[in-house]
Write a structure and sequence with these properties.
CATH architecture of the largest domain: 3-Layer(aba) Sandwich
Order of helices and strands: HHEEEHEHHHHEEEEHEEEHEEHEHEH
Pfam families: Peptidase_M20
GO molecular function, one term: metal ion binding
Family: Belongs to the peptidase M20 family.
Helix content: 25-40%
Radius of gyration: 22 Å
Distance between the termini: 40 Å
Largest sheet: 9 strands, mixed
Bound molecules: glyoxylic acid, manganese (II) ion
CATH superfamily of the largest domain: Zn peptidases
Cofactor: Zn(2+)
Shape: globular
Organism: Streptomyces sparsogenes DSM 40356
Oligomer: single chain
Length: about 425
């Protein structure tokens, strides 16, 4: 079978059978037939299929399976109550038309690494667990890492209940429809207290590793990042009869704000993206009454991020005054800078024979958990750097190198 989302096989290489089989089984779930991208959104049918897959993988291996109060899935080797567990995993949900690797590579590699540990005859002295965190991308309800944020106490049950998707369905209702109890969600300090170290393997979302001879790297830090909703309120009117000088067109203000965001980010060495937009009434021959644009912004430090977003907001308001458009800005989420635990990070780099250590601009459950437990990440080389797109890819040899690296790390952390 050839497929551009399959890890690319190198001639003569015998791929890890368990990795291959798992990858093949996951591949069709939630894949859109026309775009080839993944639409695995929280609490949908595709999400349920991914969850069923995770559970089946756990049970096939004789692992202890559990779902926590926030819908995160866990597979245990050893006694969870013993504490100081070594945990690995990632997520299975996707952004709209996402790639096959962001999330699933970490989950599949976790099971494959466990298989490798077993085939090595390794004997863990500590409990090991694999995890699939729910709703990491926030594609449906707008907030990323909902499963890990809830567990870590960084999102309250009330805040989560208030989240709504684009159709107005609340997170609580969506959970209920999927057979989960939304009243049970909330902080889970007891479960997190069982974890001695959490290691998330992830495809790299850039090309830093591609510029080295290394297929696997270790994360140093995650840039602070957040999402802001910009509402541009104008006045609906006829596109054919309203004189230009009489218009209050929020599309103009929005367009200028997009350009300003790019300029401010470039000047500050930051990132700013309007990747999602909603328009009302959304008619070809009507001036919009409302444009709603979501800004995703990230920077090397929190001060720079605050300055960039502040400047973008100022630019929007100033332009709005010229256009007769009122601008309101709502911060929908914010994740502070994450500096991964230095001891664990250095230990991983040592276990992997001097793997490169690199920062990332992408958010992860590992970043959320890092406030509660020692956390680290492994990145697998991405030859194009493309991510959050169906074109995301990695070479099969590199994926298998990732599995071996993760197995080495788990063995180093849990077996000695
Ligand atoms: C998650 O992938 C994010 O960085 O938004
Ligand atoms: Mn992602
Ligand atoms: Mn991810």
């Amino acid at each position: 079978m050839t497929d551009d989302r399959e890890p690319v096989a190198h001639p003569g290489h015998r791929p890890g059978a368990s990795f291959h089989e798992m990858w093949r089984d996951l591949l069709p779930i939630g894949r859109h037939t026309e775009t080839g991208g993944y639409r695995r959104y929280a609490w949908t049918g595709a999400d349920a299929d991914c969850r069923a897959w995770f559970r089946a993988q756990a049970e096939t291996r004789g692992l202890g399976y559990e779902e926590d109060r926030n819908g995160n899935q866990w597979a245990w080797l050893g006694d969870p109550a013993a504490g100081d567990a070594v945990v690995t995993g990632s997520h299975l949900d996707s952004v709209p038309d996402g790639g096959a690797f962001d999330g699933p590579l970490g989950v599949v590699s976790s099971f494959a690494a466990l298989d490798e540990l077993r085939s090595r005859g390794a004997r863990p002295a500590k409990p090991l667990a694999l995890v699939n965190f729910g709703d990491e991308e926030g594609a449906r309800f707008g907030l990323a890492c909902v499963g890990s944020r809830l567990s870590a106490g960084q999102l309250s049950a009330e805040q989560a209940h208030a989240l709504r998707d684009g159709d107005g369905v609340s997170l609580a209702r969506a959970m209920e429809r999927a057979g989960y109890d939304p009243e049970a969600i909330g902080p889970d300090p007891e479960r997190l207290a069982r974890i001695g170290a959490f290691v998330e393997l992830h495809i790299e979302q850039g090309r830093a590793l591609d510029e080295t001879a290394h297929p696997v790297g270790v994360a140093s830090a995650i840039w602070p990042h957040g999402r802001w909703r910009f509402d541009f309120h104008g006045e609906a009117n006829h596109a054919g009869t309203t004189r230009l000088e009489d218009r209050r067109d929020p599309m103009l203000t929005y367009a200028n704000t997009v350009l300003a965001a790019r300029k401010k980010a470039r000047t500050a060495g930051a990132l700013a993206t309007f990747g999602k937009v909603g328009v009302e009434p959304n008619g070809v021959n009507a001036i919009a009454s409302l444009v709603r644009g979501w800004l995703d912004s990230r920077a090397p430090d929190e001060e720079t991020l605050a300055a960039v977003v502040g400047e973008i907001e100022r630019a929007a308001v100033e332009r709005g005054q010229r256009d007769g458009v009122e601008v309101t800005v709502t911060r929908e989420s914010f994740t502070p800078v994450v500096e991964f635990a230095h001891g664990l990070r250095d230990e991983l780099a040592r276990l992997l024979g001097g793997a490169p250590v690199l920062p990332t601009g992408a958010g992860h459950d590992a970043g959320i958990l890092s406030a509660s437990v020692p956390t680290a990440m492994l990145f697998v080389r991405n030859p194009t750097g493309v991510s959050h797109s169906p074109a995301e890819t990695a070479a099969e040899d590199d994926c298998l190198a990732g599995v071996t690296a993760l197995a080495d790390v788990l063995e180093g952390l849990a077996c000695h």
